[in-house]
Write a structure and sequence with these properties.
- It contains eleven helices and 18 strands.
- The protein is α+β, with helices and mostly antiparallel strands.
- An eight-stranded antiparallel barrel has the order 1-2-3-4-5-6-7-8. Strands 9-10-12-11-13-14-15-16 form an eight-stranded mixed sheet, with helices on both faces. A two-stranded antiparallel sheet has the order 17-18.
- A hairpin with a 2-residue loop joins strand 1 and strand 2.
- Helix 2 packs across helix 3, helix 4 packs antiparallel against helix 5 and helix 5 packs across helix 6.
Length: 450
């Protein structure tokens, strides 16, 4: 399984709002008096073919530098970039849609210009009073779990009732808490609190992420839940887990040990670890155009990963397959370092050996609400196999509160790339690349249900 995809920048605070005069770049009446600075809050949109991607922006100074911070409902977190002037006086800075080159109308307080090398996208920003935001309380904590000291942040919306609190669990790999916090920051605007921790062995958390087991990661999630329950009203707050990718296995097992009120998974498998590996490998071999012999050899590696005995013959065959897989591109598309043994003794330390799990028995008895996201073009956790299985398990449990949402064109990070969308009747429009808008909307609606 490839590691979780995250291409989003972290939040960077803007500095003090020192006034830096910026000359007007738009024609204006002679009597007009330009505002003295570009600093302030802006609202606007990226525009292409009449389609928009809404954004909010803040422009301010940090020392002698001018910075812009941009947020969008389509993207978790904030992208902060340095603004510079080119030879024509235009302001240039990076965005997730490409480099922007904007002119500033200091009379009307507006910024406008092209974005990206192709020039098909425009960005138009208008200065206005910032919309009120829910204040967030951040508490940095540490706690003990399975022989390690974990470091985490608890987010709480201030001034509004909190009706739900979430433990965010990251996926495979040595992830810090930042990705989870960006998601929780969005949800906090709707009365939802939460906790995100550095994965054991990452950031400021102790332990070893490479050799961590699913039982240890489950203990970590349960310990985080205990910290959350200490800080939120148990009578008025619903508590739940949110697992991303391999974290989906963790939260299912965690619920079996510490029952919660709801589960959320994003690209979390409904299959066992072994079946997920087979499904992923099968999709990769199809995309690479393997013949039947090459496909069989690739899938044979999955069998070898899960064999119970550490033998020299098993190790030798695996290493021969790795060399073959590297030569034809399969290793690059499928294998992580922790999928490849470094010695015969290392066979017992493969990631799949340390994290072997099947969520089926728990899901077959699950009685609480569950919201599961899948990416429409995800090869790692393919929706066709996982949605069908999840629905079958929910039916066996008699649970009609399990909802599967397939994000159209979403990859394993649930990112939807930009592109033209064509509707019946000859209607077409440009869809901007996005990651998060549908997810937040669905979670908020899900948690408002009784």
């Amino acid at each position: 399984m490839r590691r979780d995809i995250s291409s989003l920048s972290s939040f960077l605070c803007l500095g003090s709002a020192l006034l830096i005069p910026v000359p007007a770049e738009a024609q204006s009446p002679a009597a007009a008096v330009p505002r003295p600075a570009i600093h302030g809050s802006y609202r606007g949109a990226f525009v292409r073919n009449g389609s928009v991607q809404l954004v909010d922006a803040q422009i301010g100074a940090r020392g002698d530098s001018l910075l812009i911070g941009i947020t969008s409902p389509d993207r978790p977190g904030r992208v902060t970039a340095l603004m510079q002037r080119d030879s024509t006086g235009r302001l240039t800075f990076r965005t997730w849609n490409g480099p922007a080159r904007l002119a500033f109308d200091s009379v009307n307080g507006e910024l406008i210009g092209p974005v990206g090398a192709e020039g098909g996208i425009m960005l138009h920003l208008r200065r206005m009073a910032a919309l009120p935001q829910v204040e967030l309380s951040r508490e940095e904590i540490t706690y003990s779990s399975a022989g390690a000291v974990m470091a985490a942040t608890i987010l709480r919306p201030v001034g509004i009732p909190v009706h739900a609190a979430i433990v965010f669990v990251a996926g495979r790999g040595c992830a810090t808490r930042e990705s989870g916090l960006r998601r929780l920051e969005q949800l906090a605007q709707y009365g939802i609190g939460g906790i995100a921790a550095d994965t054991r062995g990452s950031g400021r958390s102790g332990g070893n992420c490479r050799f961590g087991t699913i039982d240890q990661f489950t203990d970590d999630a349960v310990a985080a839940l205990a910290e959350l329950r200490k800080r939120f009203n148990r009578d008025s707050t619903r508590f739940g887990f949110w697992g991303n990718s391999a974290g989906g296995w963790v939260v299912v097992q965690a619920h079996s040990r510490a029952p919660v009120d709801f589960l959320i998974t994003s690209v979390g498998p409904a299959t066992s670890v072994e079946q997920q590996q087979r499904d992923n490998a099968t999709y990769v071999t199809r995309r690479l155009g393997f013949d039947s012999a090459a496909t069989a050899r690739a899938l044979r590696y999955i069998t070898l990963m899960f064999e119970p005995k550490a033998t020299q013959a098993r190790y030798d065959e695996m290493m021969a397959t790795v060399q073959w897989a590297r030569a034809i591109g399969f290793a690059r598309e499928f294998m992580e370092d922790s999928d490849i043994p470094t010695s015969m003794a290392g066979l017992d330390s493969l990631w799949v050996a340390l994290n072997r799990y099947d969520p089926g028995p728990v899901l077959r008895r699950l009685r609480i609400p569950m919201l599961a996201f899948f990416g429409g073009r995800d090869e790692v956790v393919p929706p066709a196999e996982n949605v069908a299985l999840l629905r079958s398990l929910a039916a066996a449990a008699g649970n009609d509160r399990v909802r599967a949402v397939v994000v159209p064109d979403g990859d394993h990070g649930l990112f939807q790339p930009g592109g033209m969308q064509r509707l019946p009747g000859g209607v077409e429009y440009w869809r901007f690349g996005r990651n998060g808008g549908m997810i937040i909307e669905e979670i908020v609606a899900f948690l408002r249900q009784p």
